[in-house]
Write a structure and sequence with these properties.
Helix content: 25-40%
Protein name: Ion-translocating oxidoreductase complex subunit B
Distance between the termini: 56 Å
Number of helices: 5
Cofactor: [4Fe-4S] cluster
Shape: flat
Enzyme class: translocase
Keywords: 4Fe-4S, Cell inner membrane, Cell membrane, Electron transport, Iron, Iron-sulfur, Membrane, Metal-binding, Repeat, Translocase, Transport
Number of domains: 2
Order of helices and strands: HHHHEHEEE
Subunit structure: The complex is composed of six subunits: RnfA, RnfB, RnfC, RnfD, RnfE and RnfG.
CATH class of the largest domain: Alpha Beta
CATH architecture of the largest domain: 2-Layer Sandwich
Strand content: 5-15%
Strand order of the largest sheet: 1-4
Structural class: mainly alpha
Length: 180
């Protein structure tokens, strides 16, 4: 009886390892077209396009369910890049183009309500209940989702000045791959 249990346990371990290996070996990555579209989008996760983030918007564009001109943070330049990638005609931006921006909290006015923290899709706001909050500027995408829930209106959006350190806002990061 003890030998049978040991054999069953060993079989379960071997089967589990085999299934685990198979799931890694045959893993299918996402749609390359969606990845290319998403790389063009500004990654603000703001929802101004009508989708809950840049990835769902990229998926809708790839399926032909969404127009390429719905992203105000991407602006006309983003529409042009999407048109070039997809071989479509560039349409005028549906919305008002906005420069890259970052949220700032007036520390003297903040009451620590945490509503902005809950609204931030990228966790760029740090603080605790009834304590002053602050923005981690390097994480802030400028989506403006923290503005509406703030009861004391202590958050403002400030344009990001283009410098060597902030150029990434204008140009998407391109991953280079070594060719053998």
């Amino acid at each position: 009886m003890l030998i049978a249990i040991a054999i069953m346990a060993l079989g379960a371990v071997v089967l589990g390892a085999a299934l685990g290996f198979a799931s890694v070996k045959f893993k299918v990555d996402g749609d390359p077209l969606v990845d290319k579209i998403e790389a063009i989008l500004p990654q603000t996760q703001c929802g101004q396009c009508g989708y809950p983030g840049c990835k769902p918007y990229a998926e809708a564009i790839a399926k032909g369910e969404a127009d390429i001109n719905l992203c105000p943070p991407g602006g006309a330049e983003g529409v042009g890049k999407l048109a070039d990638l997809l071989g479509r005609e560039a349409k005028p931006l549906d919305g008002v183009e906005k420069p890259p921006q970052v949220a700032l909290i007036d520390e003297n006015t903040c009451i620590g309500c945490t509503l902005c923290i809950q609204a931030c899709p990228v966790d760029a706001i740090v603080g605790a209940a009834k304590q002053m909050h602050t923005i981690v500027e390097s994480l802030c995408t400028g989506c403006e989702l923290c503005l509406p829930p703030c009861p004391v209106e202590c958050i403002t959006m400030e344009p990001i000045q283009e410098t060597v350190d902030t150029w990434k806002w204008k140009y998407p990061v391109v991953e280079l791959k070594r060719v053998a």
